Amino acid sequence: MAPQEDSTPDGGTTSGRHPHEAVAAALTAALADHVMTPAALSWEAAVQPWNSAIHQRPIAVVTPHGVAELREVLSIARDGGVTVNTQPSGHGASGDLQGTILVRPTAFDALEIDTERRVARIGAGVLWGTVARALKGTGLVAAFGSNPTTSVIGYLLAGGLSVFSRAQGLSVRSLRAVELLTADGRLRWVDDSDGDLIWALRGAGGA
Q1: 23, 33, 90, 161: which sits with the fewest CB atoms below 10 Å from its CB?
Q2: Taking the chain, what is the end-to-end CA distance rounded to the nearest angstrom?
Q3: Element containing residue 111 per DSSP (H, E)
């Protein structure tokens, strides 16, 4: 049995290692180059959100490549007693994220557009500018806002207010389904058959 470590007033242990260092080390061991810690030279650029007035200080920044790596992040977060925050493009940031693993889902960049059905399947890392370029020449337009660097998923799950809203309502009304990894690591396809969950993803009836 390994000897127990006593806590210190600053949240570390008598061994001198802060618990967040252990979380960062576990992430690095599991995801290698897809993890950035405060020791990295490009750390400040990696944690900077779109609003430059916000200064974020997460434990690490992770860019997972696939669902398996996302599950690793969730497992390590549970074991380390820390939270996970997802920022596709950094819009909407409002806090310093201390004690949090910051996930940038930029590798989830799949974009499939079915022009006949007028349906798009969009990855969590795709920006509206990418969608707009893909729609060029199709005769279709998506109900997005004025900033091409906003992520599609972040925009939709925040309601989706745009110049089209007076005529079409919030853009989230067009959300048909979500492929979702839940906190317990289950990959789910959520649509109108999951009434409460799809209702929550569409904003839960709030403002």
Answers
A1: 33
A2: 53
A3: strand 111-114
